[in-house]
Each structure stands twice: as C-alpha cells, then as structure tokens.
Amino acid sequence: MADDIIQSVYYNQMPDTVRRKIAVLLHRVWPEEDGLPEDTIPTAHDEALNARSFYAYADGKLVSYTGVVSKAIEHEGERFRLSGLSCVATDPDYRGLGYGLKTVTAATRWMEQSGVDLGIFTCHPALADFYHRAGSWPAVPDVSLIGSRDEGALTSDSLQVAVLMRLFSAKAIAHKKVLRNTTIHLDLPVGQFL
Fold it and tell me: Which terminus of the chain has a lower count of CB atoms within 10 Å, N or C?
C-alpha cells in the first residue's frame, strides 16, 4: 500500500477490503441518495467485463481509481476486441495532484499492451482535455455509442457525453473507415454504458 505507486489487479480477483475502499471512493465522488450500505460492497464493474483496476494511495488511503473493462463487439461484419475506461474517480481532497492522471496513464498503457483492437469510452465534454493529456485520447465527434440494441438503451447522444477512441491493433487501423462516421453498438445489458 505504498503511497504514490499505481497498483493494478483484476477487479474480480481483488480482496474485498480493496473493493470496499473503491466503493467508498466512488460514493464520495458520486454520492447516492441511499448512502453506502455498511454490510455489503457495491460492485463497481459487471463481472463479465473482467475489469482491470488501477489505483493509488496517499496518506494511507485509496484516493484515485481507474477501471478498464473489456469485451468483444460485432461492427460492420467484423469482430473487434475493445476496452474502455470506467469509474475514473479521484477523491476531491486529492484532485489536482496528479493521481487521476497517473491512474489513467497506467490504464491506457495497459490497454496499449493488452492486445485489444481499440479503446473507447465516454466522458463529460469538459474532461476530454484531461483524457487527451493522460493517454492521448482524442475526442471523436463523428462516432456515437449505443449501449445495446434494446429499446431505451443509453446512448452517447442522449447522455450528451464526448466519445473518445484510440485504434490500437493493425486490424482496427485497417478498418478505420468503418470505425469512424458511425454508431457503434456496445451490446451491453440495458442500463450499462462506457
């Protein structure tokens, strides 16, 4: 638990004590009306998305977290493996000190080396510059995301979020034309999104 060192482990394999600390951080950043239950640990990521977690400690407590979720999708007749940043959060008392930048940079580096075809996720438009600094993530305004093919699925347009995308593999780069000026279906359960 060394301060200022980015730690990484698969979320599904991490100890409950660390999951609880992540839940506390996420609740601090995005409070829920019902509060944080004392006797359970809310799950940050769908188990099927095999999230990789990147986190940093300062002053003995977990202060910054970035998850990377991964899945395969079908798009324009091609199968692509993608990863996306998820649950990026830094304790408000530790913002502006570089912890978020470090966890996002480490997560991005991991994606680059993981063998996925592309990285894609959404963020509030005001945060796009942060992600560009942290991992060279460009905003792609000509790409829309839709969570699923079900009625009522979440979309990047309805959520008014920026889509950020990087092409990592030779396959994705070769198919750049079908990955731009398009809508990409993430095939997630209703209510989930990147």
Answer: N
Burial environment of residue 117 by CB neighbours within 10 A (0 to 12, 13 to 18, 19 or more): buried
Place of tokens 């359960």: 189
Q: State the Cα–Cα distance between residues 169 and 139, nearest whole angstrom.
A: 19
With H, G, I as helix, E, B as strand and everything else as coil, classify residue 176. Answer: helix
To 5 degrees, how large is the angle CA 136–CA 137–CA 141? 140
Please give the DSSP secondary-structure letter assigned to residue 189. P
What is the per-residue pLDDT across 119-171, written as a single tens digit (0 to 9) for each?
999 999 999 999 999 999 999 999 999 998 888 889 999 999 999 999 999 99
Q: State both tokens at 193.
A: 């999104």
Q: What is the DSSP string of 93-144?
A: GGTTSSHHHHHHHHHHHHHHHHT-SEEEEEE-GGGHHHHHHHH---B-TTEE
